[in-house]
Design goal:
six-stranded mixed β-sheet, alpha+beta, disordered N terminus, binds 2-acetamido-2-deoxy-beta-D-glucopyranose, elongated, single chain
């Protein structure tokens, strides 16, 4: 019985509507475009299928709630209403139509379904507003651009940098006509443009902004400072001080300080500046420092003393050598050093002919201002008289010569017998030392003290190498070398005395193994 209840209700309703069809209204239907251009004229129709005869029906077009009436239409035959509207932005939204009796409040009003109207205003007047402030700033800041329009709705935006589309990323946020770039770098510099677009009935409206040039400056890096000396006339010198940063977007302001006192300042379109400062040779003229800045931050170089000591003698030349098989000298090293001079230039001569930097049988190594080394392979072509000259790098008239030294293979190999003896002795000592080390190593390895044995082996090698070097110096300063060697020997024996019983046992072991 309960299940048949709805059916009964429907039947009753049908019966009623049929009976009083003359005085009631059906639901109106609203027809019209779903989108319209702003300021165009749009036509809407409201239709009734069921309506009373001889009754004036009032149709009202409304938006959202029925207070906002957009248009009214009285229909005598009650069937259809037409509305013509000049579209304005307020028309956008859910529209509806209500039908009611004009002078007859007995007729119950009826309302149509809603009909959505989109109002399109073509985009126009796009323009970039830099919300974050100035168009030129230093890396790391956030750039915020806004694409402002004088007209347009339902707009989609695109951003272009130097004509290329900017796609959203972790650091590039694009939304609602805004572009946000966090942690900018100089790569974000360039010409920005926004393109605003909207559509109406397959027509695309576009507005391009004019371009806005954004400059993101790379912060200038810590500058390096150095100077060269310029000789102007025989008694007047200048220091050409160079301040240079590896990176930084111009323009950069470089300032040269003498301790805390500003000497000079210049703004350049590169990352390097040179200052000319008067110089007196041999005098300490203070401490120089470069400051560089292209933003609100100043980068400072280290401080260097402005002091140029001219080259002074005596110029010493000495040599050492490498011994090959048969105790023949195969390689030779000449060393050249001046007593003083902060900017020396070294030149090497063979038979009074200047040797150019690199040739077949020799090679020059300059160790800053310390000394110069000439590496020679001993052969027929390298025979001759050698000397070196040192001059101020800024003034080649000041050259000071070393003593001359004649060398050829025969002279070298006619080394005194005692030298050969010492070399041989050292060689024997070396073999002994290595064996001892091996033993100790083997022994230690057994006891699983791998690390200690290694270090002992290293000590052995170093000691031998020094012995070789010392040999050559023997010519010049026999006493010093003797004491030095004695010292080494002490060290070596000290190391071995402690271990003696073990070493002896080990030596025995080695003998057993080899024999
Ligand atoms: C409507 O009015 C016309 C004439 O004005 C009349 O002939 C007709 O009978 C009326 N109809 C009803 C249902 O009142
Ligand atoms: C309906 O009422 C209005 C005033 O409210 C009047 O001007 C009009 O003549 C009336 N129409 C009819 C058909 O009675
Ligand atoms: C859209 O354009 C077509 C043809 O271009 C036209 O027939 C149609 O009426 C237009 N629609 C609107 C809503 O203007
Ligand atoms: C706007 O920019 C787009 C993309 O760069 C271009 O294709 C178009 O021609 C431009 N339109 C105008 C009016 O400048
Ligand atoms: C630096 O300052 C000292 C004294 O403060 C002065 O003697 C020297 O000449 C200055 N050097 C330069 C390059 O200006
Ligand atoms: C240098 O002079 C010596 C003679 O004094 C000569 O034997 C030697 O070949 C010369 N060396 C060169 C490279 O000219
Ligand atoms: C010194 O240098 C100048 C220019 O660098 C050069 O012309 C001149 O020959 C050189 N003089 C000597 C002695 O090397």
């Amino acid at each position: 019985m309960f299940t048949s209840f709805p059916f009964v209700v429907v039947l009753v309703l049908c019966y009623c509507s049929k009976e009083s069809s003359q005085s009631i209204l059906g639901r109106p239907q609203l027809f019209g475009p779903s989108e319209a251009l702003l300021k165009s004229v749009a036509q809407f129709q409201c239709e009734l299928n069921i309506y009373p005869e001889n009754e004036t029906i009032l149709f009202q077009l409304f938006k959202e709630n029925r207070d906002k009436i957009l248009g009214e239409y009285s229909s005598l035959d009650g069937k259809i209403a037409e509305f013509f509207m000049v579209i304005n932005p307020k028309h956008e939204g859910n529209l509806g139509c209500v039908a009611k009796g004009q002078n007859n409040s007995n007729i119950e009003p009826t309302v149509s379904d809603t009909h959505y109207l989109k109002v399109v205003e073509p985009v126009n007047g796009a323009k970039i507003v830099v919300s974050s402030g100035p168009v030129e700033f230093v890396e790391g800041k956030t750039l915020e651009l806004h694409c402002a329009l004088t007209a347009g709705n339902h707009v989609s935006y695109k951003w272009l940098l130097n004509g290329r589309l900017i796609s959203p990323s972790r650091l590039h946020y694009v939304a609602d006509g805004r572009l946000l770039i966090s942690r900018t770098t100089s790569k974000d510099s360039g010409s920005y443009m926004c393109v605003a677009t909207n559509h109406f009935n397959k027509t695309v409206f576009t507005s391009n902004s004019s371009e806005v040039v954004i400059t993101v400056k790379d912060m200038v890096s810590t500058p390096d400072i150095s100077f060269t000396v310029l000789k102007q006339d025989p008694h007047s010198y200048s220091a050409m001080v160079t301040c240079q940063s590896a990176k930084g977007t111009p323009s950069v302001t470089f300032s040269l300080y003498n301790w805390t006192e500003l000497v000079s300042s210049t703004t350049v379109e590169e990352t390097k500046a040179t200052f000319k400062v008067p110089l007196v040779l041999g005098q300490h003229l203070g401490w120089l420092q470069c400051h560089a800045n292209n933003s609100d931050r100043i980068e400072s170089s280290q401080m260097i003393p402005l002091e140029v000591v001219p080259v002074g003698g005596p110029v010493m030349m000495h040599y050492d050598y490498d011994v090959g098989e048969n105790h023949a000298v195969i390689g030779l090293r000449f060393y050249c050093k001046a007593a003083k001079g902060s900017l020396p230039r070294y030149q090497w001569f063979l038979n009074n002919t200047l040797l150019h930097h690199r040739e077949r049988f020799f090679y020059v190594v300059n160790q800053a201002s310390e000394q110069s080394i000439l590496l020679l392979s001993v052969g027929r072509s390298s025979a001759g008289t050698y000397h070196c000259e040192v001059s101020d790098s800024f003034d080649n008239t000041t050259a000071i010569r070393s003593k001359r030294l004649y060398l050829d293979k025969e002279v070298l190999n006619r080394l005194p017998v005692w030298v050969v003896a010492i070399v041989f002795g050292c060689f024997t000592a070396l073999i002994l030392l290595v064996s001892i080390c091996c033993c100790v190593g083997a022994m230690f390895r057994r006891r699983q003290y791998g690390e200690k044995s290694l270090s002992l082996e290293m000590d052995g090698r170093v000691a031998v190498y020094e012995g070789e070097l010392d040999l050559s110096e023997y010519h010049e300063d026999a006493d010093v070398v003797n004491t030095a060697r004695a010292g080494e020997f002490d060290q070596a024996s000290e190391a071995s005395v402690d271990e003696w019983p073990q070493i002896k046992a080990c030596l025995k072991e080695v003998e057993d193994l080899t024999c």
